[in-house]
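Data availability (excerpt). All sequences and predicted C-alpha coordinate strings are deposited with the supplementary files. A representative entry, Lysine-specific permease, is shown inline so that the format can be inspected without opening the archive.
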Amino acid sequence: MEAERSFTQQSHLKDPEKLAELESCSIEGEKAELRRSLKGRHLSMISIGGTIGTGLFLASGASIATGGPGGALLGYGLIGIMVFFLMTSLGEMATYMPISGSFNAYGARFVDPAFGFALSWNYWYSWALTVAVELSAGGLIMQYWLPHVPNWVWSACLLVIIVGINSISVKGYGEAEYWFALIKVVTVVIFIIIGIFVATGVLGGVKYGTRNFTLGDAPFVDGALGTLGVFLVAGFSFMGTELVGVAAGESENPEKNVPTAIKQVFWRILLFYIGAIMIISFLIPYTDPNLVSSGSVQDVAISPFTLVFKLAGLGPASDVMNAIILITVLSAGNSALYACTRTLWMMANSNMAPKIFGRVNSRGVPMHALILTAVVGCLAFLTSLFGNGVIYMWLLRASSTSGFIAWIGIAVSHYRFRKAFLAQGHSLDELPYRARLYPFGPILAFVLCAVVLGGQGYEAYTNGHFDWGVCIGGYLAIIIFAVLYFGYKIINKTKIVKLTECDLSRF
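C-alpha coordinate line:
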Protein backbone atom coordinates (compact mmCIF):
# COMPACT_ATOMS: atom_id res chain seq x y z
CA MET A 1 0.00 0.00 0.00
CA GLU A 2 2.86 2.38 0.73
CA ALA A 3 4.27 1.84 -2.75
CA GLU A 4 0.86 2.42 -4.30
CA ARG A 5 0.40 5.59 -2.25
CA SER A 6 3.82 6.92 -3.24
CA PHE A 7 3.07 6.31 -6.93
CA THR A 8 -0.29 8.05 -6.63
CA GLN A 9 1.25 11.06 -4.90
CA GLN A 10 3.90 11.42 -7.57
CA SER A 11 1.33 11.16 -10.37
CA HIS A 12 -0.74 13.94 -8.81
CA LEU A 13 2.30 16.12 -8.02
CA LYS A 14 1.33 18.79 -10.51
CA ASP A 15 -2.37 18.76 -9.61
CA PRO A 16 -2.74 20.77 -6.37
CA GLU A 17 -6.45 19.96 -5.91
CA LYS A 18 -5.95 16.20 -6.20
CA LEU A 19 -2.84 16.38 -4.04
CA ALA A 20 -4.72 18.34 -1.37
CA GLU A 21 -7.55 15.82 -1.44
CA LEU A 22 -5.09 12.94 -1.22
CA GLU A 23 -3.21 14.42 1.72
CA SER A 24 -6.36 15.31 3.67
CA CYS A 25 -7.97 11.88 3.39
CA SER A 26 -7.01 8.94 5.56
CA ILE A 27 -6.15 5.63 3.93
CA GLU A 28 -8.05 2.66 5.28
CA GLY A 29 -6.31 1.33 8.34
CA GLU A 30 -4.16 4.43 8.80
CA LYS A 31 -4.57 7.48 11.01
CA ALA A 32 -5.87 10.78 9.64
CA GLU A 33 -3.36 13.23 8.22
CA LEU A 34 -2.88 16.98 8.42
CA ARG A 35 -5.05 18.89 5.95
CA ARG A 36 -3.76 20.88 2.97
CA SER A 37 -6.13 23.80 3.58
CA LEU A 38 -3.95 26.92 3.67
CA LYS A 39 -4.43 29.23 0.70
CA GLY A 40 -1.85 31.53 -0.83
CA ARG A 41 -3.16 34.57 1.06
CA HIS A 42 -2.83 32.66 4.32
CA LEU A 43 0.83 31.81 3.72
CA SER A 44 1.61 35.38 2.66
CA MET A 45 0.09 36.81 5.82
CA ILE A 46 1.72 34.15 8.00
CA SER A 47 5.11 35.34 6.76
CA ILE A 48 4.06 38.96 7.40
CA GLY A 49 2.77 38.09 10.84
CA GLY A 50 6.14 36.55 11.65
CA THR A 51 7.89 39.79 10.65
CA ILE A 52 5.76 42.50 12.26
CA GLY A 53 5.53 42.33 16.03
CA THR A 54 6.60 43.99 19.24
CA GLY A 55 10.13 44.17 17.82
CA LEU A 56 8.86 46.86 15.47
CA PHE A 57 6.17 48.50 17.59
CA LEU A 58 8.26 48.70 20.76
CA ALA A 59 11.92 47.64 20.49
CA SER A 60 12.67 49.78 17.41
CA GLY A 61 12.80 52.89 19.62
CA ALA A 62 15.28 51.32 22.04
CA SER A 63 17.40 50.25 19.04
CA ILE A 64 17.65 53.85 17.83
CA ALA A 65 18.65 54.95 21.33
CA THR A 66 21.32 52.23 21.43
CA GLY A 67 22.97 52.61 18.03
CA GLY A 68 21.63 55.91 16.77
CA PRO A 69 19.61 56.22 13.55
CA GLY A 70 22.52 54.99 11.42
CA GLY A 71 23.27 52.03 13.68
CA ALA A 72 19.60 51.05 13.80
CA LEU A 73 19.21 51.18 10.02
CA LEU A 74 22.45 49.23 9.47
CA GLY A 75 21.63 46.60 12.09
CA TYR A 76 18.10 45.96 10.87
CA GLY A 77 19.25 46.13 7.24
CA LEU A 78 21.91 43.46 7.71
CA ILE A 79 19.52 41.19 9.58
CA GLY A 80 16.93 41.80 6.87
CA ILE A 81 19.37 40.66 4.17
CA MET A 82 20.24 37.59 6.23
CA VAL A 83 16.57 36.70 6.70
CA PHE A 84 15.98 37.13 2.97
CA PHE A 85 18.67 34.56 2.17
CA LEU A 86 17.37 32.22 4.87
CA MET A 87 13.87 32.42 3.45
CA THR A 88 15.07 31.70 -0.08
CA SER A 89 17.01 28.70 1.27
CA LEU A 90 13.94 27.48 3.10
CA GLY A 91 11.79 28.18 0.03
CA GLU A 92 13.94 25.96 -2.21
CA MET A 93 13.60 23.01 0.15
CA ALA A 94 9.96 23.59 1.14
CA THR A 95 8.69 23.83 -2.45
CA TYR A 96 10.56 20.70 -3.53
CA MET A 97 9.51 18.67 -0.49
CA PRO A 98 6.73 20.36 1.55
CA ILE A 99 6.98 18.29 4.73
CA SER A 100 3.96 18.74 6.98
CA GLY A 101 4.80 19.86 10.48
CA SER A 102 8.29 21.31 10.46
CA PHE A 103 11.25 22.16 8.26
CA ASN A 104 13.53 20.77 10.97
CA ALA A 105 13.07 17.34 9.36
CA TYR A 106 15.45 18.57 6.64
CA GLY A 107 18.26 18.52 9.19
CA ALA A 108 17.77 14.78 9.73
CA ARG A 109 17.57 14.09 5.99
CA PHE A 110 20.51 16.14 4.75
CA VAL A 111 22.89 16.45 7.72
CA ASP A 112 22.54 13.92 10.54
CA PRO A 113 19.54 12.31 12.30
CA ALA A 114 20.96 13.67 15.56
CA PHE A 115 21.06 17.16 14.04
CA GLY A 116 17.40 16.89 13.03
CA PHE A 117 16.46 15.58 16.48
CA ALA A 118 18.20 18.44 18.28
CA LEU A 119 16.82 21.06 15.88
CA SER A 120 13.28 19.78 16.26
CA TRP A 121 13.25 19.77 20.06
CA ASN A 122 15.07 23.10 20.07
CA TYR A 123 12.36 24.60 17.86
CA TRP A 124 9.55 23.05 19.88
CA TYR A 125 10.65 24.32 23.28
CA SER A 126 11.52 27.70 21.76
CA TRP A 127 7.92 28.24 20.69
CA ALA A 128 6.49 26.57 23.81
CA LEU A 129 8.36 29.15 25.89
CA THR A 130 7.16 31.86 23.52
CA VAL A 131 3.59 30.88 24.43
CA ALA A 132 4.49 31.66 28.06
CA VAL A 133 6.07 34.98 27.06
CA GLU A 134 2.96 36.05 25.15
CA LEU A 135 0.67 34.98 28.01
CA SER A 136 2.63 37.23 30.36
CA ALA A 137 2.71 40.11 27.87
CA GLY A 138 -1.03 39.86 27.26
CA GLY A 139 -1.72 40.23 30.97
CA LEU A 140 0.51 43.30 31.23
CA ILE A 141 -1.19 44.93 28.25
CA MET A 142 -4.67 44.41 29.66
CA GLN A 143 -3.58 45.99 32.94
CA TYR A 144 -3.06 49.21 31.00
CA TRP A 145 -6.87 49.51 30.92
CA LEU A 146 -7.85 47.45 33.97
CA PRO A 147 -4.95 47.67 36.46
CA HIS A 148 -6.88 46.15 39.35
CA VAL A 149 -7.48 42.79 37.65
CA PRO A 150 -4.63 40.31 38.29
CA ASN A 151 -2.24 39.63 35.41
CA TRP A 152 -2.87 35.88 35.40
CA VAL A 153 -6.61 36.31 34.73
CA TRP A 154 -5.97 37.98 31.37
CA SER A 155 -3.21 35.49 30.61
CA ALA A 156 -5.66 32.63 31.15
CA CYS A 157 -8.19 34.30 28.85
CA LEU A 158 -5.53 34.71 26.16
CA LEU A 159 -4.60 31.03 26.46
CA VAL A 160 -8.22 29.96 26.01
CA ILE A 161 -8.51 32.09 22.87
CA ILE A 162 -5.38 30.79 21.13
CA VAL A 163 -6.09 27.16 22.08
CA GLY A 164 -9.62 27.60 20.72
CA ILE A 165 -8.35 29.02 17.41
CA ASN A 166 -5.84 26.20 16.96
CA SER A 167 -8.44 23.56 17.88
CA ILE A 168 -10.76 24.49 15.02
CA SER A 169 -8.60 23.53 12.03
CA VAL A 170 -5.49 24.65 10.20
CA LYS A 171 -7.73 26.84 8.06
CA GLY A 172 -9.05 28.46 11.23
CA TYR A 173 -5.49 29.24 12.30
CA GLY A 174 -4.66 30.59 8.84
CA GLU A 175 -7.77 32.77 8.72
CA ALA A 176 -7.13 34.21 12.18
CA GLU A 177 -3.51 34.94 11.33
CA TYR A 178 -4.58 36.54 8.05
CA TRP A 179 -6.71 39.15 9.83
CA PHE A 180 -4.22 39.67 12.67
CA ALA A 181 -1.46 40.35 10.14
CA LEU A 182 -3.68 42.57 8.02
CA ILE A 183 -4.37 44.82 11.01
CA LYS A 184 -0.63 45.10 11.70
CA VAL A 185 0.13 45.90 8.06
CA VAL A 186 -2.50 48.62 7.92
CA THR A 187 -1.12 50.11 11.15
CA VAL A 188 2.43 50.31 9.79
CA VAL A 189 1.31 51.77 6.46
CA ILE A 190 -0.76 54.45 8.23
CA PHE A 191 2.18 55.16 10.55
CA ILE A 192 4.58 55.70 7.64
CA ILE A 193 2.13 57.97 5.78
CA ILE A 194 1.37 60.06 8.88
CA GLY A 195 5.09 60.16 9.73
CA ILE A 196 5.89 61.60 6.30
CA PHE A 197 3.23 64.27 6.78
CA VAL A 198 4.65 65.16 10.21
CA ALA A 199 8.27 65.22 8.97
CA THR A 200 7.39 67.56 6.10
CA GLY A 201 5.36 69.90 8.32
CA VAL A 202 1.96 69.08 6.80
CA LEU A 203 0.88 67.88 10.27
CA GLY A 204 2.17 69.55 13.41
CA GLY A 205 3.56 72.58 11.60
CA VAL A 206 7.25 71.70 12.08
CA LYS A 207 9.64 70.61 9.30
CA TYR A 208 12.12 68.24 10.91
CA GLY A 209 14.42 67.63 7.98
CA THR A 210 17.51 65.52 8.76
CA ARG A 211 18.65 67.35 11.90
CA ASN A 212 18.13 64.32 14.16
CA PHE A 213 20.48 62.27 11.95
CA THR A 214 23.38 64.58 12.80
CA LEU A 215 22.50 65.33 16.42
CA GLY A 216 25.29 64.66 18.92
CA ASP A 217 27.09 61.41 18.07
CA ALA A 218 24.54 60.48 15.41
CA PRO A 219 24.13 58.82 13.00
CA PHE A 220 26.25 56.04 14.59
CA VAL A 221 26.18 56.09 18.39
CA ASP A 222 28.73 54.12 20.42
CA GLY A 223 30.44 52.93 17.23
CA ALA A 224 30.57 49.23 16.38
CA LEU A 225 29.32 48.15 19.84
CA GLY A 226 26.17 50.22 19.42
CA THR A 227 25.45 48.64 16.05
CA LEU A 228 26.15 45.17 17.51
CA GLY A 229 23.58 45.84 20.23
CA VAL A 230 21.02 46.72 17.53
CA PHE A 231 22.07 43.66 15.57
CA LEU A 232 21.14 41.36 18.45
CA VAL A 233 17.75 43.02 19.02
CA ALA A 234 16.94 43.10 15.30
CA GLY A 235 17.54 39.37 15.01
CA PHE A 236 15.00 38.64 17.73
CA SER A 237 12.54 40.99 16.02
CA PHE A 238 12.48 38.86 12.86
CA MET A 239 11.89 35.55 14.62
CA GLY A 240 8.88 33.78 13.12
CA THR A 241 9.47 34.52 9.44
CA GLU A 242 10.36 30.84 9.02
CA LEU A 243 6.82 29.80 10.01
CA VAL A 244 5.95 29.65 6.32
CA GLY A 245 8.22 26.57 6.22
CA VAL A 246 6.24 24.94 9.04
CA ALA A 247 2.97 25.66 7.22
CA ALA A 248 4.23 24.60 3.76
CA GLY A 249 3.04 21.02 4.22
CA GLU A 250 -0.52 22.23 4.85
CA SER A 251 -0.65 24.56 1.85
CA GLU A 252 -3.07 23.78 -0.97
CA ASN A 253 -0.38 24.43 -3.58
CA PRO A 254 3.09 24.68 -1.99
CA GLU A 255 4.95 24.91 -5.32
CA LYS A 256 3.11 28.15 -6.09
CA ASN A 257 2.21 29.61 -2.70
CA VAL A 258 5.50 29.17 -0.82
CA PRO A 259 7.69 30.99 -3.40
CA THR A 260 5.15 33.81 -3.57
CA ALA A 261 5.32 34.29 0.21
CA ILE A 262 9.12 33.99 0.22
CA LYS A 263 9.65 36.57 -2.52
CA GLN A 264 7.65 39.18 -0.63
CA VAL A 265 9.66 38.93 2.60
CA PHE A 266 12.55 41.18 1.59
CA TRP A 267 10.31 44.01 0.36
CA ARG A 268 8.17 43.82 3.47
CA ILE A 269 11.24 44.08 5.66
CA LEU A 270 12.44 47.04 3.60
CA LEU A 271 9.11 48.83 3.80
CA PHE A 272 7.97 48.02 7.32
CA TYR A 273 11.20 48.04 9.33
CA ILE A 274 13.54 50.31 7.39
CA GLY A 275 10.71 52.72 6.52
CA ALA A 276 9.38 52.86 10.08
CA ILE A 277 12.84 53.30 11.63
CA MET A 278 13.62 56.14 9.21
CA ILE A 279 10.38 57.90 10.17
CA ILE A 280 11.11 57.52 13.89
CA SER A 281 14.69 58.74 13.38
CA PHE A 282 13.52 61.83 11.50
CA LEU A 283 11.04 62.82 14.20
CA ILE A 284 12.51 61.69 17.52
CA PRO A 285 16.16 62.29 18.54
CA TYR A 286 18.05 59.24 19.79
CA THR A 287 18.67 61.15 23.04
CA ASP A 288 14.95 61.20 23.88
CA PRO A 289 14.65 59.29 27.21
CA ASN A 290 11.34 57.80 26.06
CA LEU A 291 13.13 55.76 23.40
CA VAL A 292 15.39 54.11 25.96
CA SER A 293 12.38 52.71 27.85
CA SER A 294 10.20 51.92 24.84
CA GLY A 295 11.08 48.23 24.56
CA SER A 296 8.61 46.91 27.15
CA VAL A 297 4.90 46.15 26.83
CA GLN A 298 4.50 48.00 30.12
CA ASP A 299 5.55 51.22 28.38
CA VAL A 300 3.14 51.32 25.44
CA ALA A 301 2.49 55.00 26.20
CA ILE A 302 6.05 55.76 25.07
CA SER A 303 6.15 53.37 22.13
CA PRO A 304 7.84 55.22 19.23
CA PHE A 305 4.65 54.66 17.23
CA THR A 306 2.61 56.30 20.00
CA LEU A 307 5.04 59.24 20.19
CA VAL A 308 4.83 59.88 16.44
CA PHE A 309 1.04 59.67 16.42
CA LYS A 310 0.94 62.21 19.24
CA LEU A 311 3.19 64.56 17.26
CA ALA A 312 0.53 64.38 14.55
CA GLY A 313 -2.09 65.49 17.07
CA LEU A 314 -3.81 62.11 17.45
CA GLY A 315 -4.93 62.19 21.09
CA PRO A 316 -6.03 58.58 21.73
CA ALA A 317 -2.80 57.21 20.25
CA SER A 318 -1.86 55.28 23.41
CA ASP A 319 -5.15 53.38 23.53
CA VAL A 320 -5.04 52.58 19.82
CA MET A 321 -1.44 51.34 19.95
CA ASN A 322 -2.16 49.31 23.07
CA ALA A 323 -4.96 47.57 21.19
CA ILE A 324 -2.66 46.95 18.20
CA ILE A 325 0.07 45.53 20.44
CA LEU A 326 -2.50 43.28 22.13
CA ILE A 327 -3.40 41.93 18.67
CA THR A 328 0.31 41.46 17.99
CA VAL A 329 0.69 39.42 21.18
CA LEU A 330 -2.41 37.36 20.33
CA SER A 331 -0.99 36.72 16.86
CA ALA A 332 2.40 35.67 18.25
CA GLY A 333 0.80 33.32 20.77
CA ASN A 334 -1.44 31.86 18.08
CA SER A 335 1.53 31.20 15.78
CA ALA A 336 3.67 29.83 18.61
CA LEU A 337 1.05 27.26 19.52
CA TYR A 338 0.64 26.28 15.87
CA ALA A 339 4.39 25.88 15.33
CA CYS A 340 4.71 23.74 18.46
CA THR A 341 1.89 21.35 17.63
CA ARG A 342 3.09 20.76 14.06
CA THR A 343 6.71 20.32 15.14
CA LEU A 344 5.73 17.81 17.82
CA TRP A 345 3.45 16.01 15.32
CA MET A 346 6.36 15.71 12.89
CA MET A 347 8.69 14.40 15.61
CA ALA A 348 6.17 11.78 16.72
CA ASN A 349 5.85 10.53 13.14
CA SER A 350 9.65 10.47 12.80
CA ASN A 351 10.21 8.40 15.98
CA MET A 352 11.65 11.42 17.80
CA ALA A 353 8.73 11.79 20.25
CA PRO A 354 6.02 9.51 21.72
CA LYS A 355 3.62 8.22 19.06
CA ILE A 356 0.57 9.65 20.82
CA PHE A 357 1.56 13.13 19.67
CA GLY A 358 1.39 11.99 16.05
CA ARG A 359 -2.37 11.48 16.21
CA VAL A 360 -4.81 13.98 14.71
CA ASN A 361 -8.56 14.36 15.07
CA SER A 362 -11.18 14.41 12.33
CA ARG A 363 -10.38 18.08 11.62
CA GLY A 364 -6.70 17.31 11.03
CA VAL A 365 -5.58 18.92 14.33
CA PRO A 366 -2.90 17.19 16.51
CA MET A 367 -4.85 17.70 19.73
CA HIS A 368 -2.50 15.73 22.00
CA ALA A 369 0.43 17.85 20.82
CA LEU A 370 -1.68 20.98 21.25
CA ILE A 371 -2.63 20.10 24.83
CA LEU A 372 0.95 19.26 25.86
CA THR A 373 2.24 22.53 24.43
CA ALA A 374 -0.45 24.52 26.23
CA VAL A 375 0.44 22.80 29.53
CA VAL A 376 4.18 23.43 29.10
CA GLY A 377 3.43 27.05 28.21
CA CYS A 378 1.40 27.42 31.40
CA LEU A 379 4.15 25.89 33.56
CA ALA A 380 6.72 28.24 32.02
CA PHE A 381 4.37 31.17 32.63
CA LEU A 382 4.11 30.24 36.31
CA THR A 383 7.85 30.77 36.69
CA SER A 384 7.24 34.48 36.06
CA LEU A 385 5.12 34.64 39.21
CA PHE A 386 7.65 33.09 41.63
CA GLY A 387 11.26 33.62 42.68
CA ASN A 388 11.43 37.17 41.32
CA GLY A 389 11.08 35.74 37.81
CA VAL A 390 14.80 34.81 37.51
CA ILE A 391 14.09 31.38 35.97
CA TYR A 392 11.49 32.94 33.70
CA MET A 393 14.05 35.43 32.39
CA TRP A 394 16.49 32.58 31.71
CA LEU A 395 13.79 30.75 29.77
CA LEU A 396 12.92 33.92 27.87
CA ARG A 397 16.51 34.46 26.75
CA ALA A 398 16.91 30.76 25.91
CA SER A 399 13.80 30.94 23.74
CA SER A 400 15.17 33.91 21.83
CA THR A 401 18.59 32.35 21.33
CA SER A 402 17.13 29.05 20.11
CA GLY A 403 15.57 30.92 17.20
CA PHE A 404 19.04 31.65 15.82
CA ILE A 405 19.94 27.98 16.23
CA ALA A 406 16.90 27.13 14.08
CA TRP A 407 18.09 29.61 11.44
CA ILE A 408 21.55 28.00 11.43
CA GLY A 409 19.77 24.69 10.91
CA ILE A 410 18.05 26.09 7.80
CA ALA A 411 21.34 27.39 6.38
CA VAL A 412 23.26 24.16 6.97
CA SER A 413 20.40 21.98 5.69
CA HIS A 414 20.06 23.98 2.48
CA TYR A 415 23.81 23.93 1.84
CA ARG A 416 23.79 20.14 2.11
CA PHE A 417 20.49 19.75 0.22
CA ARG A 418 21.77 21.46 -2.93
CA LYS A 419 25.01 19.47 -2.88
CA ALA A 420 23.12 16.19 -2.37
CA PHE A 421 20.67 17.12 -5.11
CA LEU A 422 23.47 17.48 -7.66
CA ALA A 423 25.46 14.55 -6.27
CA GLN A 424 22.51 12.25 -6.94
CA GLY A 425 22.34 13.25 -10.59
CA HIS A 426 19.48 15.75 -10.45
CA SER A 427 19.31 18.92 -12.51
CA LEU A 428 18.61 22.34 -10.99
CA ASP A 429 15.86 22.68 -13.59
CA GLU A 430 13.87 20.17 -11.53
CA LEU A 431 13.59 22.60 -8.62
CA PRO A 432 10.23 24.45 -8.55
CA TYR A 433 11.99 27.36 -6.85
CA ARG A 434 15.72 28.06 -6.79
CA ALA A 435 17.44 30.10 -4.06
CA ARG A 436 19.51 33.00 -5.28
CA LEU A 437 23.28 33.34 -4.88
CA TYR A 438 23.91 29.81 -3.63
CA PRO A 439 26.18 29.06 -1.76
CA PHE A 440 26.77 32.67 -0.69
CA GLY A 441 23.29 32.98 0.85
CA PRO A 442 23.37 30.08 3.33
CA ILE A 443 27.04 30.75 4.19
CA LEU A 444 26.32 34.42 4.95
CA ALA A 445 23.30 33.48 7.05
CA PHE A 446 25.34 30.90 8.96
CA VAL A 447 28.13 33.38 9.72
CA LEU A 448 25.80 36.19 10.85
CA CYS A 449 23.75 33.84 13.06
CA ALA A 450 26.98 32.53 14.60
CA VAL A 451 28.06 36.12 15.33
CA VAL A 452 24.75 36.79 17.09
CA LEU A 453 24.98 33.57 19.13
CA GLY A 454 28.57 34.32 20.10
CA GLY A 455 27.63 37.88 21.03
CA GLN A 456 25.06 36.85 23.63
CA GLY A 457 27.58 37.65 26.37
CA TYR A 458 27.70 41.27 25.17
CA GLU A 459 24.61 42.21 27.18
CA ALA A 460 26.07 40.60 30.31
CA TYR A 461 28.47 43.55 30.63
CA THR A 462 26.74 46.57 32.13
CA ASN A 463 28.78 49.53 33.38
CA GLY A 464 31.84 47.36 33.86
CA HIS A 465 29.89 44.72 35.81
CA PHE A 466 29.43 41.17 34.54
CA ASP A 467 25.94 39.68 35.08
CA TRP A 468 26.19 35.88 35.26
CA GLY A 469 22.40 35.50 35.14
CA VAL A 470 22.20 37.26 31.78
CA CYS A 471 25.15 35.23 30.50
CA ILE A 472 23.61 31.90 31.54
CA GLY A 473 20.29 32.82 29.97
CA GLY A 474 22.01 33.84 26.74
CA TYR A 475 23.95 30.61 26.29
CA LEU A 476 21.47 28.17 27.87
CA ALA A 477 19.87 27.28 24.52
CA ILE A 478 23.27 26.44 23.01
CA ILE A 479 24.03 24.11 25.92
CA ILE A 480 20.64 22.40 25.61
CA PHE A 481 21.11 21.95 21.85
CA ALA A 482 24.56 20.40 22.37
CA VAL A 483 23.19 17.98 24.99
CA LEU A 484 20.33 16.94 22.67
CA TYR A 485 22.64 16.50 19.68
CA PHE A 486 25.44 14.54 21.32
CA GLY A 487 23.05 12.58 23.53
CA TYR A 488 21.03 11.32 20.55
CA LYS A 489 24.19 10.73 18.51
CA ILE A 490 25.85 8.62 21.21
CA ILE A 491 22.74 6.59 22.05
CA ASN A 492 21.74 5.90 18.44
CA LYS A 493 25.27 5.92 16.96
CA THR A 494 24.26 8.18 14.09
CA LYS A 495 26.63 9.50 11.43
CA ILE A 496 26.70 12.40 9.00
CA VAL A 497 24.55 11.37 6.04
CA LYS A 498 26.54 10.91 2.83
CA LEU A 499 25.46 13.25 0.02
CA THR A 500 24.68 10.31 -2.22
CA GLU A 501 22.45 8.78 0.48
CA CYS A 502 20.42 11.86 1.49
CA ASP A 503 16.67 11.23 1.32
CA LEU A 504 15.36 13.41 -1.51
CA SER A 505 11.93 11.77 -1.77
CA ARG A 506 9.36 14.53 -2.11
CA PHE A 507 6.57 12.99 0.02
